[in-house]
Write a structure and sequence with these properties.
oxidoreductase; 16 helices; eight-stranded parallel beta sheet; single chain; two-stranded antiparallel sheet; TIM Barrel; FMN; binds ligand FNR; alpha/beta; Alpha-hydoxy_acid_DH_FMN; 383 residues
Length: 383
Amino acid sequence: MATPLTIADLKELAQRRVPKMFFDYADSGAWTESTYRANESDFSRIKLRQRVMVDMTDRTLETTMIGQKVSMPVALAPTGLTGMQHADGEMLAARAAEEFGVPFTLSTMSICSIEDVASVTTRPFWFQLYVMRDKDFVLGLINRAKAAKCSALVLTADLQILGQRHKDLRNGLSAPPRFTPKHVWQMASRPFWCLDMLKTKRRTFGNIIGHAKNVSNITSLAAWTHEQFDPRLSWADVAWIREQWGGPLIIKGVLDPEDARAAADTGADAIVVSNHGGRQLDGAPSSISMLPAIVNAVGDRIEIHLDGGIRSGQDVLKAIALGAKGTYIGRPFLYGLGAMGKEGVTLALGILRKEMDITMALCGKRDINDVNASIISRQGSNR
Ligand code: FNR
């Protein structure tokens, strides 16, 4: 393939380079994947207003997310096992994000640890927290994020228990990779991935090593999650987390206006309207379809971000127009990483930036901070 021009191109390349069990891990959703699909397809129902005879010079995509300057309103979402898409994946993606001037969010369930990522970056990144039953362990993670000078804590609210992805079970997903004949075959057919992986020692969960000794495949990961993650997590716990952390707090995984009101009551700095990329409650509505109701409920009280289904700069622009201050991408950067390592993440970000810039101009706007619902075609949209 010539230079990839779209996120779909990067996806195709990643599928060719990454062993099936890890590509499927990134690319799948829960159960029937209906929410995963709706996340993507609902964006295309929203139509943009074409405007003409407007000065389109000197455009800017620069803005802020939780008061922090970003070169465009797109952060890299926290994703588990990113170091299995490409060796040292989290470190590479964090460096690409830093060079691009957008936030990188490190997952609790990452392969590279908080300290690994801190060692290759010079600007603060964000840390995503899953809350375990063992509060000393949670406190340990918060303190490590503080020591690494992370500039936001992203508290994930929508994974007290793990949704089920059929492909992961069928593939026998594991980290570190297992060596059954099927898996050896899958990996042997991806020699470049293997060569990179042989050069690193980072092949299992960097932040939870020691705490996850018995996790060898997805069945044991599900059992471990069930055992460790706190199923009683409630809004009352947010106060404790806020107190321990003491910095900017983002609550991720809010999809309902009532929950959004409760999240705003906690005094958090932002919420992420998200259904975990369709990986948790299959049958839930798409993130973009819930954004207007949530903006209506709490838009004047808390900053609102969105993720799920963003595959183009147009999608980002639509989310901003409907009231999000920023967005996150999960799979788009994972495809780039799997396809081409750090360069692929930079390419994914570049693709989104170019699409966003051109679309903004053709909608008659020059500054992302001036983008609002006026760029949406009410007549043309099928919502
Ligand atoms: C995720 N997501 C996620 N979220 C989180 O808070 N902690 C995590 O560890 C993970 N892990 C994870 C792994 C993979 C492979 C994916 C695809 C997603 C959800 C993620 O942060 C984000 O909400 C979605 O990825 C957004 O949807 P798109 O952009 O992938 O469509």
